Amino acid sequence: MNANTLPAYPLTIYFDASCAICSAEMSHMKARDTTGRLQLVDCSAAAFSSGPAPRDALMAAIHVSDAQGRVFVGVPAIRLCRTAVGLPSGGFLLDLPLVAPLAERAYALLARNRYRIPRWLAARLAGRVAPSCDDGNCRL
After folding, report:
1. DSSP annotation of 130
2. At 90, phi and psi to the nearest 5?
3. Is 71 helix (H, G, I), strand (E, B) or coil?
4. Does the structure show a pLDDT above 80 at 5?
5. How many other CB atoms are there within 10 angstroms of residue 34's CB atom?
6. Cα 36 from chain centroid (whole Å)
7. What's the start-to-end Cα distance of the chain, in Å?
8. Which one of 42, 62, 75, 131 has the minimum C-beta count within 10 Å?
9. Number of structural domains, the chain?
10. Mean pLDDT within 4-26
11. Longest C-alpha distance within the chain, in Å?
């Protein structure tokens, strides 16, 4: 990331809280956010209409808006979130000419199929226990 793309905090993260992987990952990020750099916004409600893009786009890929109004989508958005909370962003690796397009494709594939992933696998992918929706009401 160069100086022109350094984010201005706080970051507003638009994510799908109805997705077990997304919720677990955002909960993990927020727990590490000791400096208040992240603001989470659940865009999964059918009536959701505020945000930097139409709801369909927000539901298709993570969107992050920084304090200057710049919007980042997909892998770049995830990298910003991870950096904001002190996690490795994979910057060097993800910037390699052959790796960057593969990472984008892998993210798009995962995002499109996130509801098909079994809960046990979702929990492992997120690295922690995903929220439980056994009774029809998800507990975050």
Report:
1. P
2. 75, 15
3. strand
4. no
5. 8
6. 16
7. 32
8. 42
9. 1
10. 89
11. 48
